[in-house]
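Please, structure for the following, as tokens.
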Amino acid sequence: MAKILPQISLLFILLFVKGTFSYAQDFDVACRLAQPFCSDASRELTFPNTVGDMDGLGEIGCLNTTPNPAWYFLRIDESGNLIFDVQQWVDGNDNSNLDNGERQLDVDFIAWGPFPTSFIVDCDELSRGCDNNGDGDNIRPAECVNNVDDPDYYLNNLDNTNIIDCSYARTPEDDTFIETLTIPNAQTGEYYIILITNFADEAGVIQLQQTNLDEPDAGTTDCSILDPGVGPDIATCGEFPITIEGRFPGAISYRWSRANVGTTNFINVPDPEGMFPFLEINSEGVYQLIGYSDAGRTVEVGRDDLVVLDVSSAVVSVDYSIEEESFAGSYTITAEVEATSEVENANFEDFEYRLDRDLGSGFIEYRPFQSSPVFSNVPPGDYFVTARYANCPDSEERSEVIMILGYPKYFTPNGDGFHDTWSLINIEGQPTAQIYIFDRYGKLLKQLRAGGPGWDGTYNGRNMPSSDYWFRVEFNEPRDPNMRRRVFAGNFSLIR
């Protein structure tokens, strides 16, 4: 650890002047200065550029020069493709918008990824060149392509490195001030590192604006990384290890500690793992990060914790309720989940629900998983609800079979094996039910028993004609705790 701490101090004891850097960077530590960035429909954000370092980092990727490098990172929220416009301008009125008359600045960039954390311990992990023949030797910047010349080069990973995209304006004299960054097939939780240059050496702002937010298969960035601390709690479906990370403004060193879920008895994580603002963990627990403004870790500038919980056994049981009384025509089923005490105590509430229905040959999916426990406009039939913690199949549990009383609107007694008889739906559980069928004049044609074969459309051995018929059923309302006796009447059609 004695060999590492001076490097960490060198990394962070670097001064910001009015939001801009004013020092020369060494590539092996420069990427650790990356600042969080996000872009979504509600937060199109701009950031100060860098001045005072025209020497930059030399030749990197497709960039022959890297004057005034500024480093950013983003984290993927929803998986998909992300496309950004990258631009830079002198923001004369400090409103973070490119207004008429404001002068745009030449901007170039290179981006790397994906990574499991934003904090790259050794920046040499970021490739400085490309390997077009894929042999792993002679990885040179000269082999890297400007994405303007070959838009598919980085999309198809022809560079054979972790460079995800690279672009520069060939002729700034043509007023080409917008570059395009593309991150294909990004996955939730991945991090990407971006270096943006300022050839003009003029103070201004940088903006990365996602342009494909509303398109199919578009991914999104996670804006929670802009907030200091360690971010939201994490539910894992038994998948370890997990990398967690955080940061605090002004912190130059860190310490991690861990406690069991539901307790505050934190125990320090052994260094050197705990000295960085990220940590790979292999078990659930409460993880706390403390940031310090000095290398000796004596002056605290921030403290935050998060819960990491294995939710693969989160659901204990699934119950339900039905609002409407029988024979209402359509129903609302509301699922009710009993979760483990650990999940409840940690306030983890991200459950999802699926409704399955028996269509005669077994249960199949009727409504896919949804975040709401309420299923509306459900017709009569046999169902069960499956509940799980979100995106965790191992936690799935299902309710008992839900039998909803109802009746078919028609039947066709033509001997084809489909709808040949008429009977109430799910009346089998009502052995005391009395069912009567009448013609349009009120003549009693048939009395049925619950669970019997139903009416075949005949009276005294003669086929009854196609027409509407009426029924009356006397039964005990299953949704009533007192099982009160009810009478329901309706009509249906006989079709020949």
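DSSP finds three helices and 36 strands in the chain. Confidence is low (pLDDT under 50) at residues 1-24.
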